[in-house]
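Lab notebook, bench 4. Still working through the backlog of constructs that have no structural model yet. Next entry is a single chain of 693 residues. Request: give me the structure tokens for it.
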Amino acid sequence: RSVYDDQPNAHQKFMEKLDACIRNHDREIEKMCNFHHQGFVDAITELLKVRADAEKLKVQVTDTNRRLQDAGKEVIAQTEEIIRCKVQQRNITTVVEKLQLCLPVLEMYSKLKEQMNVKRYYSALKTMEQLENIYLPRVSQYRFCQIMMENLPKLREEIKEISMSDLKDFLESIRKHSDRIGETAMKQAQQQKTFSTTLQKQNNVNYGRNMHLGRGRISESKNEITLKRTFEDDDEHEEEVLTAQDLVDFSPVYRCLHIYSVLGDGEIFENYYRKQRRKQARLVLQPQSSMHETVEGYRRYFSQIVGFFVVEDHILHVTQGLVTRTYTDELWNMALSKIIAVLRTHSSYCTDPDLVLELKNLIVVFADTLQGYGFPVNRLFDLLFEIRDQYNETLLKKWSGLFRDIFEADNYSPIPVANEEEYKTVISKFPFQDPELDKQSFPKKLPMSQSVPQIYMQVKEFIYASLKFSESLHRSSTEIDDMLRKSTNLLLTRTLSSCLQNLIKKPHIGLTELVQIIINTTHLEQACKYLEDFISNITNISQLTVHTARLYGLSTFKDARHAAEGEIYTKLNQKIDEFIQIADYDWTMSESDGRASGYLMDLINFLRSTFQVFTHLPVSGKVAQTACMSACQHLSMSLMQMLLDSELKQISMGAIQQFNLDVIQCELFASSEPVPGFQGDTLQLAFIDLRQV
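Model written out:
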């Protein structure tokens, strides 16, 4: 340390001490060597002795090694063979291991090819998925695996194309067979409704029957047997008839949906399917131009629509997400608007009430079928009310023709009945009651003509025809009663009234016929209450109900009667004018003939015979009195106009006397009371002005 610290003379002192230390060590070494020198010499001597022995040993070892090498050549050869076998064995083991890894891949690929050949595409996609995720990664270093990996996307595209082709074939198939599917569904819905109605009636009978001793048990057992047979028949029917869904093989849809879902293109498939079905819906909703001509045209149209929505409903319930309730509701609302527009247009062309009724029945079955599948159909039943008005119009046109035919065929004379059987036949058709007539013996005559019972029966037939349309409309008895009364009122106030008015105005209808028409309308008016009872019995709605409408037949027949009465007055006046026209007065004659004019006597005789017919009128002679007064006034006015004619320049006393004789005959006719019921000289007053002139 002192050396490093650079103390004065430190280095020299260090060197001196170091030399002293070296000398000490040299002395110790010398002492040690002197002590071991003899041992060293002895060891050298022994080594020299061993040298000769070592050379001999070397020779022996060399010889031994040579002999050992010669002896081990065969062992070495065998050992090398063993080594080679071991290498081969190891290689075989390695190959087996690799093959064991590759074989599942090859087996799966072979399975994939087989599935493709037998068209099990969904299973093939699952196999591809296993190949890609499990098997191929284990042997990805091999070239054949790369080839497989390259082929898998191509196979997927091939599967997509094939499945899409199958889907297109499926869509085309259901488009062609949708009418058959819909027809089957509608038949089943109709059968189910019929069965439910029968069952409900059966239950009502069971509920309302009286369970008396013995008879109650028999009735109950019969009902049970009937109900059991109904169930058995229904079961047999179900076994024989396939459901609408059974008529369609939906596997292409399921397969394509699964395939696209596995491939991650489920949304693409859903959009494609919905787009194609919307197109098909538009085609299905497009009617044929001649659809309104036959029932089959409407049936096919409805069947196609039902078939379309039955398929969609099935797809909705058996697939997840392919179609949704929102989608089907939107599609149905679009279809419903189109259907209603089509039916409004085509039904307006229908002039046959039977065809309109068939259309209504088809619409009801159509609505009930789709309602059973969960589609709202209230708008269809609203449409039926529109069609009901049209149906009533077609009925009114048809019954207008029937009424005209009845009026044309009528002889307008009282109905003769020769015996009790004929009398019962007539009153079975028309509710006629007359105690006075019942007391008379046969043969006798009923006051009305043959058209009255026929008209009454046709009105009842009209009510039945109108009732047919009201059935199955899911309306209450009160509503049906109201509909029947309104349609019957239309028949009476419009159709029958119009026919009566036209009949009265016809030129070939004479006074006798007009009198009979008045009698007929009186009896028809009295029969209106029986028509109201008839409707009440059909609908089970009492006439005492507040909202029950009344028939307007009273006003209809009163109007017709008034028109007939007015026509009687008109025709009487026309007949008087005809007689007046043949009057040939010689206004310059020197003296009268001494008797009334021939034309006037003929006219008075005509009036007498005419007013005798009026005694049959069931109106207390008021019509006859009015007709008689009108005729006398018209005759008086006509004679006065003749006398005061401006073209008449001069009149002789003889002409005045002759004219006076004619006026006297008129006054005598008035005073003879041709129609009973006039008070005093009321009728003669019609000629007082003429007498004064």
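Notes after review: The chain has 21 helices and two strands. The chain has four domains: 19-121, 151-197+245-375, 392-413+449-568, 583-692. Flag for follow-up if needed.
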